[in-house]
Amino acid sequence: MRWVTAQVELLSEVTDEVVAAFARLLPQLSRSAAPLDREAIARIAGSQASSVLIARTDGVISGTLTLVMFAIPSGLRAVIEDVVTDDAARGKGVATALTTEAIRIARDAGARTIDLTSRPARVAAGRLYEKLGFEARDTRVYRYALD
């Protein structure tokens, strides 16, 4: 497997290329997520709480990550969400590049910690996060379904 150098950038403009990339990548992350149109992507990217990062390999968008940061009484909270690497680029450093940039952005903003979750079945992702310094926490995650 060839290790590639992914170029990571903050999503600043929602182009046809970006819309097509999300249409290709989102189903690889979640089978139940609704497709995103240009306006939905622009709303997410334009939110003050969200930083949408995209990675390019050989000029093609090969992954994305959303860093969410918001102030709460105990400090600036940072959470990494929806990390997805294109199937064709898995294991080639895309998620590492995205996560490393998200860590830099959160650190520069003043966050003291960054949280993320990953399904237990995503063993490779878990190894990556641990390699980058994330530690598993002894916690319970609760979800309340609003549907």
Structure description:
This protein has 147 residues and is of the alpha+beta class. It has a single domain, classed as Gcn5-related N-acetyltransferase (GNAT) (Aminopeptidase, 3-Layer(aba) Sandwich). The chain is 33% helix and 26% strand. It has four helices and five strands. A five-stranded mixed β-sheet has the order 1-2-3-4-5, with helices on both faces. β4, α3 (94-109) and β5 (115-116) form a beta-alpha-beta unit. The longest helix is centred in the C-terminal third of the chain and has 16 residues, at 94-109. The protein is globular. The N and C termini lie far apart (42 Å).
Helix content: 25-40%
Order of helices and strands: EHHEEEHEH
CATH class: Alpha Beta
What is the domain total for the residues? 1
What overall form do the CA principal axes indicate? globular
Structural class: alpha+beta
Order of strands, main sheet, comes to 1-2-3-4-5
Approximately what portion of the residues adopt beta-strand conformation? Answer: 25-35%
Please give the oligomerization state of what you see: single chain
CATH superfamily: Gcn5-related N-acetyltransferase (GNAT)
Spatial gap, N to C terminus? 42 Å
Gyration radius, in Å: 15 Å
At CATH level 2, the architecture is 3-Layer(aba) Sandwich
What is the number of E strands? Answer: 5
Q: Largest sheet, if any? A: 5 strands, mixed
Query: What is the CATH topology classification name?
Result: Aminopeptidase
Return residue spans where pLDDT drops below 50 for at least 5 consecutive residues: none
Number of helical regions: 4
**Averaged pLDDT:** 93
